[in-house]
Design a protein that fits this description.
This protein is α/β, with parallel strands linked by helices and 163 residues long. The chain has one domain (4-162): NADH:ubiquinone oxidoreductase Nqo5 subunit (Beta Polymerase, domain 2). It is 24% helix and 28% strand. It contains 5 helices and 7 strands. A 5-stranded mixed sheet has the order 1-2-5-4-3. A two-stranded parallel sheet has the order 6-7. The longest helix has 12 residues, at 111-122.
Length: 163
């Protein structure tokens, strides 16, 4: 559901005209518009926002774990239009069973390390990412430490398991 006041916003209006089924809901909070999007359309929506609406800067990609709720995760993108002096937040719900979403690396190269960090810490796979591997945790690390069900002190391993 998109509130009528947000439908008057030129960016939201252009986006809903171009992608009628992409925006699932929207809200205005703390002076920033947040759009909940269909994850299947994230790359096309981001490309449109960059090329047609001048949101040329991707300032972050992260996730929120809503465990035990399903869909468990939200992948969150923060965009900035320098020309319009405006911020936009995009959120995509992602299932906890097989958490994956398309990479926006083809739109913004700056998504590279943001998506790797989100993959490493939450275990969300970014399809079509050119180098999706751990960036913060050691290669042999088991699990994803920012998941709500990750043990506070990490998993306990015996010396025999490490051999």
């Amino acid at each position: 559901m998109i509130p009528e006041t947000l439908l008057q916003d030129p960016v939201v209006s252009a986006l809903t005209a171009q992608f009628p089924s992409a925006v699932q809901s929207a809200k205005l909070a703390y002076g920033e518009t947040t759009l909940i999007l269909d994850p299947a359309q994230i790359v096309d929506v981001c490309r449109f926002l960059k090329t047609e609406q001048n949101f040329i800067r991707l300032s972050s990609v992260t996730a929120v774990d809503w465990y035990p709720r399903e869909p468990r995760f939200e992948v969150v993108y923060h965009l900035q239009s320098l020309e319009k002096n405006r911020w936009l937040r995009l959120k995509c719900p992602v299932s906890g069973e097989k958490p994956e979403i398309d990479s926006v690396y083809s739109v913004w190269r700056s998504a590279d390390w943001y998506e790797r960090e989100t993959f490493d810490l939450f275990g969300i796979t970014f399809r079509n990412h050119p180098n999706l591997k751990r960036i913060m945790m050691p290669e042999g690390w088991k699990g994803h430490p920012l998941r709500k069900d990750f043990p506070i002190h990490g998993y306990k391993y015996s010396y025999a398991e490490q051999q």
